[in-house]
TrEMBL record:
<dbReference type="InterPro" id="IPR017761">
    <property type="entry name" value="Laccase"/>
</dbReference>
<dbReference type="InterPro" id="IPR011706">
    <property type="entry name" value="Cu-oxidase_C"/>
</dbReference>
<keyword id="KW-0325">Glycoprotein</keyword>
<keyword id="KW-0560">Oxidoreductase</keyword>
<protein>
    <recommendedName>
        <fullName>Laccase</fullName>
        <ecNumber>1.10.3.2</ecNumber>
    </recommendedName>
</protein>
<keyword id="KW-0052">Apoplast</keyword>
<keyword id="KW-0732">Signal</keyword>
<dbReference type="InterPro" id="IPR002355">
    <property type="entry name" value="Cu_oxidase_Cu_BS"/>
</dbReference>
<dbReference type="InterPro" id="IPR033138">
    <property type="entry name" value="Cu_oxidase_CS"/>
</dbReference>
<dbReference type="InterPro" id="IPR001117">
    <property type="entry name" value="Cu-oxidase_2nd"/>
</dbReference>
<keyword id="KW-0964">Secreted</keyword>
<dbReference type="Pfam" id="PF00394">
    <property type="entry name" value="Cu-oxidase"/>
</dbReference>
<keyword id="KW-0186">Copper</keyword>
<keyword id="KW-0479">Metal-binding</keyword>
<dbReference type="GO" id="GO:0052716">
    <property type="term" value="F:hydroquinone:oxygen oxidoreductase activity"/>
</dbReference>
<comment type="similarity">
    <text>Belongs to the multicopper oxidase family.</text>
</comment>
<dbReference type="InterPro" id="IPR034288">
    <property type="entry name" value="CuRO_1_LCC"/>
</dbReference>
Amino acid sequence: GIIRHHKFEIRLQNVTRLCHTKSMVTVNGKFPGPRIIAREGDNVLVNVINHVPNNISIHWHGIRQLQSGWSDGPSYITQCPIQTGQSYVYNFTITGQRGTLWWHAHITWLRATVYGTLIILPKKNVPYPFPKPHKEVPILFGEWWNADPEAVISQALQTGAGPNVSDSYTINGLPGPLYNCSANETFKLKVKPGKTYLLRLINAALNDDLFFSIANHTLTVVEADALYVKPFETDILLITPGQTTNVLLKTKHYLAAANSTFIMAARPYFTGLGIFDNSTVAGILEYEYPNGSVSSSTFTNTSIKSLLPTLPPINGTSFVANFSSKFRSLANVQFPANVPKKVDRQFFFTVGLGSSPCPKNQTCQGPNGTKFSASMNNISFTLPTTAILQSYFFGKSNGVFTTDFPRFPLVPFNYTGTPPNNTFVANGTKVVVVKFNTSIEVVLQGTSILGAESHPLHMHGYNFFVVGQGFGNFDPKNDPSKFNLVDPVERNTVGIPSGGWIAIRFLADNPGVWFMHCHFDVHLSWGLKMAWIVLDGKLPNQKLPPPPSDLPKC
Ligand code: C2O
């Protein structure tokens, strides 16, 4: 591999969408941010220089960070944030991954504006396991707030209420024609007839699972979270925040399609309670004439609505369950699925929303006058004021974190039936410590305390195999016998079904401190997160090296 240098200047930039101009935090003045392209085996160095008043850190979402945990990026987990006027060089080597990932700010809600594509090409002269595409196109889904997203979440945390929703969804930063004052802010994909395009889909939205489809076109899924999957065809995709999916788009033949346009669209999947944004971001697929020109398509809102692709209903859980069951690892000689067959340590984590008592002298606008909160095994995780990785590495955990994160819920209850009487959660900074090379199984059980809801669960530093999933309560007697240990999908983010559970397995072969959390930023802010400490192994190449000298201080 080669060394690739990048410079990320964090600066304020005026950006206009929906006829609303605001000054916002960006990388190099771009929204979405710059694209990073590297090959498997390359060493990537990104110098992040902070020129804004906010503290910041950047996470390379899905990068394994083998023995480079100091470059993972979540604030107060692996590093103190980069303060105004400071800089930090992220330094990692890409091993055993190829496909689409992304990067984003990892502190408060700054990732609303600070995110971009991270493409990992196979090693030189190594082909894709599918036909070489004519062109590759990143498609980043996001959200746009007229307000400052930082203000939106801090106000919600103060009142205990759910935060305001965004003003639009976006494709590559553009809201598309179905919002007010946005007709000129539409993503257009120009294509030639009879070709294959690789679309690199990334859901960078803060709080929404999204359905996506292109009218009159079938897509072939070939990769998820930078790992190839067994190809399958679909007209509609579901993609959770944090997930990436590569699909092949075969364009129609010339006679059928020259000079025609088709609408692509995304809108949320949502089963929870409370407010959500049921709007649609649309983009346009334009077929070129042979000479490369396109007919300037003029649409009215009504004509676009009549051309929208069909998407499942907003609460289309059966589509989601069926769709996610189609993902399978290649599991062949070249790309084996190394699923842990035996398990050294088993965990059962409940995942869900709850509430915490309203502080005295305050009125709270959460459920029944409480504050919204979220938890795993009833623990709502609080970020410390210094980084866990540093305090662990230097043996100074006192007052920073404790190692008593429970293996099982303290008081089991019927997770998908009547909610327990006392839904209050406990706050804490609790971690699980595991030995190097432990093989781990975690059952993640959604709770329905405030109504069933899906949770895109993301793990740092690892990919995991999704060996099982189901609705209702996990049944430890009968469910494990149905686990797929042959070709389960391997990924870094998975949706825990609304009113159900998933089971994951991974081998703890990467020493460090690794965050695991819901990738809905609102749930993350409410405490739906925990961390693993994976101890060093005995051999030199099984140890986390000391931190770089420019590691930020708190
Ligand atoms: Cu994409 Cu911890 O995040």
